[in-house]
Amino acid sequence: MKALQWQGVNKLAVGTVPDPGLRNPGDVIVKVTRTVTCGSDLHLIGGYIPFMEKGDVLGHEFLGEVVEVGPDVKRHRVGDRVVVSSFISCGRCWYCDQELYSLCDNGNTNPAITETLWGYAPGGCFGYSHAMGGNAGSHAEYIRVPFADVGAFTVPDEVSDERALFASDSASTGWMGADLGGVKPGDVVAVWGAGAVGQMAARAAVLLGAERVIVIDRLGNRLDQVAKHIGAETLDYERADVAAELRERSGGRGPDVCIEAVGMEAHSPGAHFGYDQIKQQLRLQTDRPIAVREAIHACRKGGSVFVLGVYAGFVDKFPLGALMNKGLTVRGAQMHGQRYIPMLLERMAKGELTTEHLATHVMPLDQAPEGYRIFKEKEDNCVRAVFVP
Amino acid sequence: MGRTARALLIVAPIAAGTAVVAAKRRSGRSPSPRRTHVVTVHRPLSEIPGSLEELAKSVEISLAPAPGDRGTEISVRIPEGSPVTDAEVRRALRETRSLVEVGDVLLPSGPPTTEKTPLNRPLRTATEHGREGGLL
Ligand SMILES: NC(=O)c1ccc[n+]([C@@H]2O[C@H](COP(=O)([O-])OP(=O)(O)OC[C@H]3O[C@@H](n4cnc5c(N)ncnc54)[C@H](O)[C@@H]3O)[C@@H](O)[C@H]2O)c1
Ligand SMILES: [Zn+2]
Ligand SMILES: [Zn+2]
Question: pTM for this one?
Fold first, then answer.
């Protein structure tokens, strides 16, 4: 079958690979009908997460049709139209019981790498390096989905492929940021990053009853989408002093909840961008935490900061003093998709949550390397490139 | 610094860890006193799971109820002179947890789509022993 493969740092190509087979009795094979780029992939492609092997298949946000079912699968049949959580979880361990699905004890076949790096190993993910299990990704004609009863969800007839696709990763991630960040009615919420993840976090905050939701970015088209499709306010960090604006728009208190949806390749117009970039390139720090620093500083006393952006290792100049003295709660997580996907599909069916606008570019899988180039450069107002295998 | 060197800087400590495990296994020297390896399985257990029976001949295994309804703590101590390695114990405990909780042990995707290169050799070595390393 055809698949998009990682061939080296900043090198992608569509190649031919063997079709995936059932490996465990709880697996299904899904014929991928739509699969999409994610900001997380950029960290892999650029070599910031150095656990890729030549030939690895990328992709973790996808939708498709079940074509083969393992003997232990109970909830799915051949022909089901399913959207699949990007994280692979067993559904039976203590973490899955607590609905902390991305922390599953049994979903990563290579726990040694991340256990050594971080103390304990989170679960596995599709197409997300050997540190996350080395699972073949979704930018392919077919994909094997382990623990299918737990991670694959039948899409209701009322929800289109175009909309349901984003329940797989970006919408569940965004919802988690607002939910576990503790957004309540009456809150002022600030979101850094107007990519698909930041937009979905902002929409979740709106639906959870926040009084004001403010999304920060510099890309005009993304901020226009926020105003038009998300129903939130915008803030261009190249034209305004973010901290001062947030202070003014929150009655001088500071946002109650700050959600960071930027990640380790954050950009900044200020001097610390050069500083962070050089340190990252010299591997003196692995990540650029510009938006996290800003969120911690801007947050109100006793407020909450949720880190959705992906980080791999160590950062520099982490504002520990602000965190401690302002009594902040700082939390982060990889997405617990299984916890949110059924609810998101219901909201999608009711029209409360729309996502079609995120798919600014739709193209055949053959053009995926070009799709990633456009996505990475944010060229032609690209927000997400969707591939149709 | 080139890309290769950069990638290796981060991968190297992990590969080195794996190499140490492999070297220990090969050397006939009597091992230094080892730690106890413990996992919690999210189920009540009254006897040693079948998947640890073979190992139980050469190590000391004990079970204790975990606090807060978290299941059972399985501890394995490797006695002086036992032929069993830490790596084998880690793998057995991780597989046992999955067997007890899920009834199965997740296999990696297959068939593989990757190509062996000198650059990914340390990573391949680490993943071939994916359940044997780490801190457990
Ligand atoms: N936690 C999870 O499970 C999970 C899941 C999906 C994605 N992610 C992560 O979320 C992050 C965002 O993902 P995405 O797909 O939306 O990425 P994206 O690249 O499409 O969007 C990132 C946005 O951040 C903006 N940005 C850069 N620097 C900024 C700054 N200093 N302040 C404000 N905005 C800034 C960029 O202009 C861009 O619009 C990535 O790090 C991704 O890895 C995490
Ligand atoms: Zn993602
Ligand atoms: Zn689990």
Answer: 0.93
